[in-house]
Amino acid sequence: MENHDNPAAAKRRARGRPRDWDDKTSQNTIKSLDRAMQVLEFISKRQGMALSAISEEMGQSASTVYRVLVTLEGRGLVEFDPEEQLWHIGPRAFTIGSRFLRRTSLVERARPIMRKLMEATGETANLGVEREGKVLFLSQVETHANIRAFFPPGTLSDMHSSGIGKTLLAQMEGERLARHLAGGLQAFTPHTIVTAEALQADLARIRARGFAFDDEERSIGMRCIAAPVFGIAGEVVAGISVSGPTSRLTPEQVAQLSQPVIAAAEALTQSIGGVVPPPPTGV
């Protein structure tokens, strides 16, 4: 039924989306565009792929994939290396992704806080959020030291083996957390937590002390300390961390270095109008 009593609402709806905007059936899906987006996303996860490999792994005909690639190439979203005969993600994709980052003030407000954190600890500062079950790194301020961690914006990482990932998981409850644990936990190093029971115990410790510690769980020789950033309703919206080599970020320094990390997370929470929820009962 049309809303004759509220013409303003009807006008806003018409400007932004059609009447049947929530209908996701095939009649409202452009199949060729959907296929092109699948190819673009597939290539974005690799460092360069031949047409035959893309076609085989995606289960699409080479001619169909080629037409998609040529179309995307024309818009700068992918590019072709004629010497190696490989397709890569293109510069236009980065430009579009950068506009997503500018949509929110989180990255902008985090930069000065991350720079102060890097200067206070001498280690690389990182900002990440959860996207589709992974940690998406949004920003980084690198240390000036020769040996340092590097997570370029756009990098995706498994949550259970990441300091930021674990600090985000620690704030999740019930079915949401269960979904993250249901698919199994991949081992990246001998130190990776690979059982749900062990991870649950680690998440309880994270909630109690206010920060997460990645002890060579993703990469041998690298450690990370992370703390949560909260939104206006007290929900976790991001994680901020410092990461560095084991030679500098020793277990003995964890307690000391965790304090500026927690302070940076609280400062960013305040900067975006967020609210730090009270600590768990009994802590």
UniProtKB/TrEMBL annotation:
PANTHER family associated with the record: HELIX-TURN-HELIX TRANSCRIPTIONAL REGULATOR, ICLR FAMILY, HTH-TYPE TRANSCRIPTIONAL REPRESSOR ALLR
An example Gene Ontology molecular-function term: DNA binding
Start and end residues of each IclR-ED domain: 92-274
Protein name as it appears in the record: IclR family acetate operon transcriptional repressor
Pfam family, any one: IclR_C
UniProt keywords, alphabetically: DNA-binding, Transcription, Transcription regulation
Highest taxon of source: Bacteria
Region listing for Disordered, in residue ranges: 1-28
InterPro entries: GAF-like_dom_sf (IPR029016), HTH_MetabolicPath_Reg (IPR050707), TransRegBhcR (IPR054844), Tscrpt_reg_IclR_C (IPR014757), Tscrpt_reg_IclR_N (IPR005471), WH-like_DNA-bd_sf (IPR036388), WH_DNA-bd_sf (IPR036390)
Domain HTH iclR-type: 30-91
GO biological process: negative regulation of DNA-templated transcription
